[in-house]
């Protein structure tokens, strides 16, 4: 895992008087799973996108293992951070296998290693590789697309996972399995995970700590599930 430090992080979208994220500071420890919960529109996705550099903050800074993210080149950042989102974000013109292979290929893995890894990742998310690897995203259900999105996020074995409601459309049995896989990745590989969910049971099950956010991502509470439940 890796530590993630947010220092006075702020984002103002052009044309919006109110910041979406206002002066947020937080430290996420290496190997820790932190859950973001909070009302829709409070800036959870914006925060994850800034950590991942899909959007630039308008103020403050982000450090991963002490290194300012603006100093990490794009390929190295993709290797460091796996990103899975509610809408899957799959590239529609690439097959399932090509989508999953993207970051490992960028990283320079050999073809056989990439092929094995794609298969392993499809197995992990419970999709039969023979059936699914050549399909295009539009040929999958919403839940299957999300599962491929999770497979893609994990493919290059990044130390950091940013997951924005990644299991929202997944059926309950598969979701349970994926939650268990995530716990295993955390325990065995010490991934640092930031996970957004509206599902309180999921938050309790997965979180080492839960950050309860209010408008503009102000932190109302940041504590263990036990402490949050007793407050
Ligand atoms: P959450 O993930 O907690 O639902 P978001 O980060 O998506 O919240 O959004 C935070 C705020 O920023 C909302 O008010 C939203 O409307 C606004 N917002 C999000 N993306 C954009 C954008 N690209 N341009 C302008 N405003 C945005
Ligand atoms: P571009 O240079 O075209 O903006 P990006 O690398 O910024 O490409 O990301 C393009 C898309 O890839 C994003 O919309 C997102 O869905 C997906 N993506 C972003 N970060 C990652 C990641 N770390 N791992 C896998 N997919 C990612």
UniProtKB/TrEMBL annotation:
Keywords: ATP-binding, Coiled coil, Nucleotide-binding, Repeat, Transport. Belongs to the ABC transporter superfamily. The keyword Coiled coil applies. GO terms for molecular function: ATP binding. Residues 4-231 form the ABC transporter domain. The chain holds residues 8 to 238 of 412 of the full protein. This is Betaine/proline/choline family ABC transporter ATP-binding protein. It comes from Streptomyces pyxinicus.
């Amino acid at each position: 895992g890796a530590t993630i430090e947010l220092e006075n992080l702020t984002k103002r979208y052009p044309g919006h008087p109110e910041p979406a994220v206002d002066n947020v500071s937080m430290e996420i420890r290496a190997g820790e799973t932190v859950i973001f919960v909070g009302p829709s529109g409070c800036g959870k996705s914006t925060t994850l996108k800034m950590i991942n550099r899909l959007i630039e903050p308008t103020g403050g800074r982000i450090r991963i293992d002490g290194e300012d993210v603006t100093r990490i080149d794009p390929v190295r950042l993709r290797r460091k951070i796996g990103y899975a989102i509610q809408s899957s974000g799959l590239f529609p013109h690439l097959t399932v296998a090509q989508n999953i292979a993207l970051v490992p290929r960028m990283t320079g893995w050999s073809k056989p290693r990439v092929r094995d890894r794609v298969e392993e990742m499809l197995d992990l998310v419970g999709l039969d590789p023979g059936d699914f690897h050549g399909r295009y995203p539009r040929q999958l259900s919403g839940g299957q697309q999300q599962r491929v999105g999770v497979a893609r996020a994990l493919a290059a074995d990044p130390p950091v996972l940013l997951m924005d409601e990644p299991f929202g459309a997944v059926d309950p049995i598969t979701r349970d399995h994926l939650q268990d896989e995530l716990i295993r990745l955390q325990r065995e590989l010490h991934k640092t995970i930031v996970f957004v969910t509206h599902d309180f049971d999921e938050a309790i099950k997965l979180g080492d700590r839960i950050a309860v956010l209010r408008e503009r991502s102000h932190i109302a509470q940041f504590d263990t599930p036990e402490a949050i439940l007793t407050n």
